[in-house]
Design a protein that fits this description.
The complex is a heterodimer of chains A (about 350) and B (about 270).
Chain A (H helix, E strand, L loop, with lengths): L1 H10 L5 H11 L4 H18 L1 H4 L1 H26 L7 H18 L4 H26 L3 H24 L3 E3 L4 H8 L1 E2 L3 E2 L1 H18 L1 H11 L1 H6 L4 H27 L1 E3 L4 H13 L11 H17 L8 H27 L6
Antiparallel strand pairs in A: 1-4, 2-3
Helix pairs in contact in A: 1-2, 3-15, 3-16, 5-10, 5-11, 5-13, 5-14, 5-15, 6-7, 6-8, 6-13, 7-8, 7-13, 9-13, 10-11, 14-15
Chain B lengths: L7 E10 L2 E11 L4 E6 L5 H8 L7 E6 L2 E3 L4 H6 L2 E4 L11 H5 L6 E2 L6 E2 L1 H14 L17 H14 L4 E5 L7 H16 L3 E6 L2 H7 L2 E6 L2 E7 L5 H8 L4 H15 L10
Parallel strand pairs in B: 3-10, 3-11, 6-9, 9-10
Antiparallel strand pairs in B: 1-2, 1-4, 4-5, 7-8, 11-12
Helix pairs in contact in B: 4-5, 5-6
The chains are: A mainly alpha (about 350), B alpha/beta (about 270).
């Protein structure tokens, strides 16, 4: 196949050697497939969507969505690399939104109290998830479905009990709104910049710090990782708390952007975040993936999800495209993984 | 062979799980620079014995001695810290990690200082590649290659090199050649010899008599949890060992049966079972 050609060709000293070796090295990156996917999707929508897609408003429409999903997709991706899942984020987002809205809107306490409490909700749910996964040994898919329903029920119950309805509104102060809930240039959500900050932090965590190596090892082979002296249980809890925190961050910024919180907001994040991560080349069973891949997957997903409206295509077909894209992405990523394994630099 | 104190010794070790006795009265010694081959058929108690040596199980009765002093391992970590390393059949490595990264899992080299300590990929790759090449696997020259792309023999070699690099004194190899082809197995046997030359005590678990005879100095045959034979290199032939492993004279019996059948049926071998 392709790599064997590349390898053979690269063993011949020639001018093209360098380029071919670089291509070979590229296939070794877990995000190789998702980069191709993003380019294909971008070109397609640029051709079909035309000027509207390429205008600032067009960019804003998918970047806003990408930032919100992306904030959750990053920790979900890390968890998946570590071999775990987190579905409870879908309940943490509204739970934290409502915590902020109730504390600062309904009771009128200072906003920072509400924001800290909202983020605290995420950390608590995350700790609880990690602890249960370690303690029970039940697959994390099940554990987090359980906690998702639990959190959702509690959110609904308390909201109705305290506020008397399923939605609570909040009018944020200008400073807080500028930091967390404003639109830059009237259309780009400030969340985009937070997302970029998170991307940098996650990149450092996974690819630069030594902790990243532990995450890969944990997902690759939990028992070997433990034998090698990695505190697997603490690492699992920390990763769940990170995903709880990130989901809560999205919830907090949502309530500040939309100035109200709804009990059922956030459901769509569960599958959307997983799709972004998988399109981005993260292995479902753990052990492989990259932050760049997750970002590329998120962008791809957001473009398809939003910019279907700029084309003449029936928006309902958007879901069909996303479904097909997901399948295609997984097949392509598997192919690239095989190529990556067989790729070796040969000495001339 | 040297007559110094064995690095690792078992004295009359029994292991039972509830009412089930798995190991009876096992006594073994392994010295520095010596390969002890543990031979046994499936279910003979080999894995329980390995786990006892590696600190996973505690012996029900009997003692484990290290350098002549009785020891009790609280768990595999402690055994590892005392220099006992187990390498499992598939190398126990991470297929989708690079050679450098998997070599240093849990003990990553860093550069920088304070909160800016970062994983030092270059150093990790250099040390890992050098450690493997020192064992004669010169084909590995790129620390960024994924472990999953290595052959079975190379993976074993990587795991052994890793154990030695991190200070193993006793190397327990659990069926290292079982899943390998002839060439790959020869590779691993060469590595075992190299480990022995470096003065490690090697416990080599296998059911392939040929492989055991290539590298072993000392042999112990395990049958139903007890040591059925204990002999040194050159004291028994391959056939004798195979027969021992199969639980007595069964192999010879079977051959005799086939021969007598062929005599009685004009040289026709027996038909395959229906």
């Amino acid at each position: 196949m392709n790599t064997t050609n590349t390898v053979q060709a690269s063993s011949v000293p020639s001018g093209g050697h360098h380029i071919k070796a670089t291509i070979g090295q590229l296939t070794r990156r877990p995000e190789a497939g998702s980069l191709l996917g993003l380019i294909a999707v971008f070109v397609f929508f640029a051709l079909v969507g035309g000027q509207a897609f390429l205008s600032p408003a067009g960019y804003a429409s998918w970047l806003n969505i990408a930032a919100e999903i992306g904030l959750v997709a990053l920790p979900v991706g890390l968890l998946m690399i570590a071999g775990e899942m987190d579905l409870s984020i879908g309940a943490v987002i509204p739970a934290s939104s409502l915590t902020v809205a109730i504390i600062s809107g309904h009771y009128g306490l200072p906003e920072f109290v509400g924001i800290f409490a909202g983020l605290g909700v995420g950390l608590i749910v995350g700790f609880f998830n990690g602890y249960l996964v370690n303690r029970t040994g039940v697959p994390s898919l099940i554990v987090t479905i359980g906690s998702m329903f639990g959190v959702m029920g509690l959110t609904l119950g308390f909201t109705v009990l305290i506020a008397g309805s399923t939605g609570v509104s909040l009018v944020p102060s200008p400073t807080v709104k500028a930091i967390l809930g404003d639109f830059v240039g009237g259309m780009f959500q400030v969340t985009i910049f937070w997302w970029l900050l998170f991307v940098a932090a996650f990149f450092y965590l996974l690819h630069v710090s030594t902790l990243g190596n532990w995450i890969f090892a944990l997902g690759g082979d939990k028992i070997s990782a433990r034998n090698a002296g990695i505190p697997t249980e603490r690492l699992t809890i920390a990763l769940y708390m990170l995903s709880g925190f990130s989901a809560a961050f999205v919830g907090v910024s949502q309530v500040l952007v939309y100035q109200s919180a709804q009990v059922l907001a956030g459901q769509s994040f569960i599958f959307n975040s997983i799709m972004c991560v998988v399109i981005g080349g993260v292995l479902l069973t753990g052990g492989a993936g990259s932050v760049v891949g997750i970002v590329l997957g998120t962008l791809t997903f957001a473009i398809v999800n939003q910019d279907i409206y700029f084309t003449g295509i029936d928006p309902n077909l958007g879901s069909v495209i996303i479904g097909a894209l997901l399948l295609l992405a997984v097949m392509m990523n598997d192919k690239f993984r095989v190529l990556a394994m067989s790729y070796a630099t040969k000495k001339k | 062979m040297s007559d110094n104190t064995p690095i690792l010794e078992l004295q009359n070790v029994d292991k039972s799980f509830g009412p089930i006795d798995v190991l009876h009265n096992i006594s073994l010694k392994v010295r520095a620079g010596e390969v002890l081959c543990l031979l046994g058929d499936n279910g003979a108690g080999k894995s329980t014995l390995i786990k006892t040596l590696a600190g996973v199980h505690k012996p029900t009765r009997g003692t484990i001695l290290m350098d002549g002093n009785p020891v009790e391992f609280s768990g595999p970590r402690e055994a590892q810290e005392m220099g006992i390393s187990t390498v499992h059949q598939f190398g126990g490595t991470f297929p989708l990690m690079s050679i450098g990264r998997s070599f240093f899992v849990g003990v990553e080299p860093t550069k920088g200082w304070g909160p800016f300590k970062v994983y030092d990929r270059k150093t990790a790759n250099e040390i890992a590649v050098k450690a493997v090449q020192d064992f004669g696997i010169t084909r590995i020259d790129d620390g960024d290659r994924l472990v999953g792309g290595l052959s079975g023999g190379e993976r074993q070699s990587l795991a052994i090199a890793r154990a030695v690099h991190f200070g193993a004194r006793v190397l327990i190899l659990d069926e290292p050649t079982a899943a390998l082809g002839v060439k790959q197995a020869a590779h691993v046997l060469r590595i075992v010899n190299e480990a022995k030359r470096r003065g490690l005590a090697v416990v080599f678990i296998t059911h392939q008599v040929m492989h055991a005879m290539t590298v072993g100095d000392h042999f112990a045959v395990l049958i139903r949890g007890a040591i059925a034979a204990d002999f040194r290199r050159g004291e028994k032939t391959r056939e004798e060992i195979t027969d021992l492993m199969a639980g007595g004279e069964t192999m010879a019996d079977l051959e005799a049966q086939i021969e007598s059948y062929m005599d009685a049926h004009e040289g026709q071998p027996p038909p395959p079972a229906q």
